[in-house]
Design brief:
By secondary structure, the chain is mainly alpha-helical. Helices cover 59% and strands 4% of the residues. A hairpin with a 5-residue loop joins strand 1 and strand 2. Helix 2 packs antiparallel against helix 10.
């Protein structure tokens, strides 16, 4: 993360949460959606997810029914055994991993079920989708641990 914008990002993102919230509440959806693809690509070119893996270390995706079916089959487990072994139901009624870091995250930050991973993992950090505007609380939370979300928010604010 040699980019100047990313230097000390963890500290900066904590200080700028109020600014991000105000921006997300006022931002024009169409303007943001037009800018997202470029900023998303730029952020991914500057941040190596394998050197970070904060998402896998600290949070869980939702495991939806298709995810559970696909991953169970891949692991050659009955769905009930997969759920019992790896998942719990959270306060929103969603299946999430029982423990952090994710049990599928290796010491090298590679995912052992990468090709079968949940759709939430495939889409994370949602910096190329309208989720960034639609789910403001999620975007704010993601900016506290994901340098890509931080980067995209900073670029959007810079451009407004």
């Amino acid at each position: 993360m040699a980019d100047k914008l990313l230097h000390n990002w963890e500290k900066k993102t904590k200080e700028r949460q109020k600014l991000y919230k105000q921006f997300l509440e006022r931002a024009g959806k169409n303007d943001v959606l037009r800018l997202l693809p470029g900023f998303h690509e730029e952020a991914f070119s500057k941040v190596d997810c394998l050197s970070c893996a904060n998402c896998c270390k600290n949070f869980s995706p939702r495991f939806k029914t298709p995810d559970i079916k696909r991953i169970s089959k891949y692991l050659r487990l009955r769905e009930s055994d997969f759920i019992e072994t790896y998942l719990r139901v959270d306060e929103d009624g969603d299946f999430v991993v029982k423990s952090s870091p994710c049990p599928f995250l290796g010491a090298d930050n590679y995912c052992s079920i990468y090709d079968q991973r949940p759709s939430d993992c495939q889409r994370f950090p949602y910096t190329d989708e309208d989720v960034i505007i639609k789910r403001k609380a999620l975007t704010l939370k993601n900016s506290t641990f994901c340098p890509i979300t931080y980067y995209v928010l900073e670029k959007l604010i810079e451009k407004k």
